Amino acid sequence: MAYTSLYRRYRPDTFRDVIGQDHVVRTLVNQIKSGNIGHAYLFTGTRGTGKTSVAKIFSRAVNCLHPEDGSPCGKCEVCMELALSGNFDVLEIDAASNNSVDQIRELTDKINFPPTAGRYKVYIIDEVHMLSKSAHNALLKTLEEPPEHAIFILATTEVHAIPATILSRCMRFDFRLVPVQKIADRLKFIFDDNGVKYSEQAVRMIASAGQGSVRDALSIADMCVSYCSGDITYDGVLEVLGTSDPVKLVALAEDILAGNVEGALEKIAAMCDLGKSMSVLASDLASLFRNTLYVKNCGSAADLLALPAELYEALKGVAARYDTPRLLAAMRRMTEMEGEFRYSTQHRILLEAAVIAAATEPRSEGGGNVRELEQKVAALAKRVSSLPSRGFEPAPAEKDARQVWGRVASELERRGMGMLVLAASEASVEEHDDALVMKVSAESALRILRDPAHRKAIAQAAEAAGVGKPVVIEEVRKIEEDKVLPYLTNMFGKSLEIK
Ligand SMILES: [Zn+2]
Questions:
Q1: How far apart are CA 218 and CA 6, in angstroms?
Q2: CATH number of 396-475: 3.90.190, 2.20.220, 3.30.300, 3.90.25?
Q3: What confidence tens digit (pLDDT) does each residue in 256-270 have?
Q4: What spacing in Å lies between the alpha carbon of 62 and ligand 1's midpoint?
């Protein structure tokens, strides 16, 4: 049986089922009810917030013979006809892959033919900002004088890249990030519907990992369902996300704030042994410090952050023990990491250097050899960045391999299998004569990518993307980094008192 992703299966069919975009839905429903329909719409917003879903519902609603409360009835002959994939009245174009002027001309040439099933011909152009300049001009021509029966819905994640000439001809709708609570409610509904067991905490974790995108949340949910086989636990979700256990993370944060370098380095080593990604750990720490700052300085933090109760209590404790400048400095150290990670492959060393720097941050004017220590940290950071590494720009061969995988990835995304792209996101890619090799170290990602049904999906996507060779998933062991600690202690000499 072919696997259909949750995202595909639970795509909304009516406006009622669209979550988190009430302001958009209300206006569109009113237009349908009053028959006051425009010719050009622009839907903007982050990925996975429902632009294409709403466009599809709208395209059927304008044509439906008996719309129910502004939504397509799904039963009349027009609705039935439009539900078929080969219909000529609703045309979906992905501008990311069809961005040439010829492709747009081909489309606009046919626009004068009347619709076959309903009253309107609807063109949904996804990622419209990807169109070439001449393609934009061709489109503009049609937008200036569209035939009575034509409706354009342009969707984009990058509204700033749309020419003003196009913007001015469209009715613009901004799709917002969907609140965690709404995504969580939707997830619970879907899990219940599938007889999947889950804990409240696990669902919250998945919902907030989606970062406002329903599609991303559902992709993660997909991974969790297949990883946890029917019973989604908090620990299972943590493993899938590669995120750190909040309890351990709070303990690490406390060590950093208290200046306990030894404790902090031990905890990082333990997390590294578990296969945690150091870049994820750095961003987890950054958001922990940020959340603590909220708790300390913002009366409505509990509502704003929507964290699990135990974690909130733990952060309250941290907030009470340290002052704002201290927390702020620690947060800055961690966010600065994100930029540096891009230029180096020595993530663990970078993170350790940042943690030591944050832990030994001067707290008052006094601080004797703190200056000296700071200089050494700076020297260390400099040495780390000059260590031989593969660098930011991948070697040409690796870059090519990445591009090949990129084609497979967008094919997978198109097929609603974004979860596999997510699972493969930390893999390194190599192109061999006889295969495209994905080297994966995280256990959860391996398990998902090696699942027979998923392997088949990847193979099919690779074929469709014209890769011309099999995609092989290979397990890699983590590089031993035991030499790091002695290296660091050596670097700091005796002035760093590790007790
Ligand atoms: Zn209908």
A1: 6
A2: 3.30.300
A3: 999 999 999 999 998
A4: 9
